Amino acid sequence: MCVTSVHKNLGSLSGTAIINIGKNSRLSPDLVKEIYIMLSTTSPSPYLLFDIEGCVRLMIDKGSSKLSDCLRLRTLLKTLLKDASTNLEIMH
Hints:
By secondary structure, the protein is mainly alpha-helical. Helices cover 66% and strands 9% of the residues. It has one domain (2-91).
């Protein structure tokens, strides 16, 4: 079991997270749900919940292509930064 910060990993609104329970977890989903209910707020924000759902849905539907885009852009950024660094060295 782990808690994932959705606002850090999937770009959701600030302060959102999800609980991930593995198939072979020693903790039952029912126990985790019971503990969560005891510790969570009585008035969760529907805006944050809908935002989490949207981020998770985006990753299910388009996650692979989005991650590929990110890796492609990362490579492009590294190249541009390297070129900019070389140009700055030439100017000095």
